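Predict the assembly for these two chains.
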Amino acid sequence: MDSDNVIVDDKYNIEAAEILANEAQHLPITEAAPLYEQLLTLFPTAAKYWKQYVEAHMAVNNDDATKQLFSRCLLNCLQIPLWRCYIRFIRKVNEKKGIEGQEETRKAFDFMLSYLGADIASGPVWMEYITFLKTLPAQNTQEESQRMTAVRKVYQKAIITPTHHIEQLWKDYENFENSVSRQLAKGLLSEYQPKYNSARAVYRERKKYVDEIDWNMLAVPPSGSYKEELQWMAWKRLLAFEKGNPQRIDSASSNKRIIFTYEQCLMYLYHYPDIWYDYATWHAKTGSIDAAVKVFQRALKALPDSEMLRYAYAELEESRGAIQSAKKIYESLLGDGVNTTALAHIQFIRFLRRTEGVEAARKYFLDARKSPNCTYHVYVAYAMMAFCLDKDPKVAHNVFEAGLKRFMHEPVYILEYADFLTRLNDDRNIRALFERALSSLPPEESVEVWKRFTHFEQTYGDLASMLKVEQRRKEALSRTGEEGPSALEGSLQDVVSRYTFMDLWPCSSNDLDHLARQEIIQKAQELKLIANRL
Amino acid sequence: MDSDNVIVDDKYNIEAAEILANEAQHLPITEAAPLYEQLLTLFPTAAKYWKQYVEAHMAVNNDDATKQLFSRCLLNCLQIPLWRCYIRFIRKVNEKKGIEGQEETRKAFDFMLSYLGADIASGPVWMEYITFLKTLPAQNTQEESQRMTAVRKVYQKAIITPTHHIEQLWKDYENFENSVSRQLAKGLLSEYQPKYNSARAVYRERKKYVDEIDWNMLAVPPSGSYKEELQWMAWKRLLAFEKGNPQRIDSASSNKRIIFTYEQCLMYLYHYPDIWYDYATWHAKTGSIDAAVKVFQRALKALPDSEMLRYAYAELEESRGAIQSAKKIYESLLGDGVNTTALAHIQFIRFLRRTEGVEAARKYFLDARKSPNCTYHVYVAYAMMAFCLDKDPKVAHNVFEAGLKRFMHEPVYILEYADFLTRLNDDRNIRALFERALSSLPPEESVEVWKRFTHFEQTYGDLASMLKVEQRRKEALSRTGEEGPSALEGSLQDVVSRYTFMDLWPCSSNDLDHLARQEIIQKAQELKLIANRL
């Protein structure tokens, strides 16, 4: 995974992308198209490249290609400039189609505003829409009245939408109503004034959050840079702000705005698994499990290698009782079987145990043992499951014993096995296990095993066996060469460790510091002596 | 203990000591004596103060007081200037006593050299002794011959002793032998030349170690200063050098020199428990358990509060089968019973279990429960002993349950009890214990218990119980105020922790870093928000 990441980082080179985009801009569209496709495969949410691409088609009036491009990008790129380009395109192709064309254009405006009307930068779009509606021809007073009603409706939406242009829109609306009817205006304006005021207040608050966001950022996998973290933080703050429903609107509208914010956020933090996860769990919490599922599916398209997202997704399915769906996700984690990770084996066994029972888990374990990536972890996990869940210490013991044949060289496995035997309170077998392991492990691998053996004798042994194992440990480890000659001698620190219980020490913390410092000095000095001798 | 140390540090004020010593020097002896006594109670191994004290008596010819003082300090202060002062005193009081006085003086020289002859600075003493011997009157040739033999014997010891004056002594010896008999000289000198050469070589090597030592240092408890650590290191190096027997002398002589070095070392590192311990164990290893015991007894006089030295001493006695002696030391650790530490209770119970059996340990535990300092540790220790050593889970369980009535408010006790039940694989009782504890522990005390409960459900529970306990934990801990509002939401990090097994993670280390950093940023931000709100 790590090595993948390095390649990924190379791939998502922002400078190279900018150079490529610049190059494409100066080429004829037929030559530029493959470059844009390359760019947009890497940066599918880069609205600016989509816009550049689509404008290149528009410049040569490739209407079909333009339409196609818009259908590929609009819903994933909730960005005003791109969508205004779309409106321009729709207006152009419908310019000469009379009423039908006007209807198409109106629909396009509605479509855009339904997706982007909430954008803080959507003011000019509202204005353009109103202007467009105002210029529609009216044959008679009825039509004039209808047109006026349509304009009023849009105004009344625009003035309660917190945008950069909200004050301008309010003034325009005042003029509009006054031009229609001075008398009616008074009532309408005083009705809308508080709603407008509230929207303006929210605008001012929201602007602070929005200003923190870099709207030109390309979506690259997190590299840990400070700039990226600032952006992540800015988005989290904006999301938290929106989740608080600052405008006190109805929950459906509020949810729509939260979704809008998540969608915009994911244009930039497309490679951030935590954002996908938060988005999906927000949906699930809001009651829309299906929406959550869809977010997970999109997340896995964006981050196909993210195991944690897969587990999160499987967890959602399992939680809602969709066991078969969950199983499919687990199976996707297993992959082709050859490269299945030990963790995937383990989690699948646990899943089977939970959902299908002991026998299914056992069967899978027996197969998994033969997998090339079956590490000792799988044995430990299965044995502990048998012990803790099936209450079957015998099976657990057999599994550990079978594993020992394969993993005698793994100190961690030895320690896990010893832990298990400790739970059985089976000191005879623990001692035997330590002896078997230490007779085959090389000294440099056995440090932790010796440590545990010592600790074991401090609990289970008498004074003689305690002292003996410590001496043996010193002798064995002195052969690793990492310990100097003094390591062979018993130290006061050993006494302290023998007579310490939990956090009760047979000395003051000053003494402890002193002994610890001395040990460090001693070791440093011995290493120096050894180094000098070399 | 820590607070003791602060007082101690105050008490052992070097500057104040020097001022006091200076003051004493300018007072008549009757007034100075109490000041010296005060000084020497604090610094019983400060040879320079003893010398000053004794010289003050000598100046006014207080011979009896002088003698008394010498008997109090000489053997604890193996320092050349102090002992030369002693020789001066002996010579003075025996000056006019004829042959008897000469014999006394000779004995004093022998006495001094037997203790300090090995000192690198003992050259002048050897010389003075030789001069003294040379000036003894001889009535006849027989006596002259005896005198010559005596001088030769001393020379022959002096020239194989590595001292600063070894070359001068060799030249003197050559002259001496040549003045006795040119013919004999040749044989003797060529016999001694290689021994002298070897001693001179060792002198040069040893000098490097000795030069690192500050022979003016006052013995103060370690405060952790760099200077102190350098001195500690210098002594450890010198001791290691001597233990290597660089002069290849017989082991009795080598041991004598090692003892001499330890004794000198302890004049300066008198408050260093590790030196006392090393000295005692060196004795024990060399086969002299009685000497080791004596060192421990002196160590406990020097550091009466050092529990670890007491345990080390008890361990030595127990190891050699002197159970009654060991028991007495354990009893000294218990003290008056009122202030007995929990650790002392525990170690005594374990000692009784080892040496007198289950019943003695049980009886003591029943009493110890009533002690005012009986903390939960005593219950844990006794329960685990019953479980691990007596294989009696029922007693262990009863002890834990009895302790719960007293220690329900101790999260660590809850965790230990839970650990024990986990070893019994008794999930019903573990769950019940967690619920009981969490219903009474305040949230800010229950962080670790919740953590363990969560981990427990990850092992023993199904998905629903896993998720439920995590949610409950979040809700409970969010009330502590230390966690921000986001803490209530499930995070991707929670998913990671649910699907991690041992060191197998469902994500790359980059992902982990990223998630961890995000959590830190988030928390910092929320704390800032909370702080701003205050």
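Chain A is about 75% helix and 0% strand. Residues 14-212 of chain A form a domain with the Serine Threonine Protein Phosphatase 5, Tetratricopeptide repeat fold (CATH 1.25.40.10).
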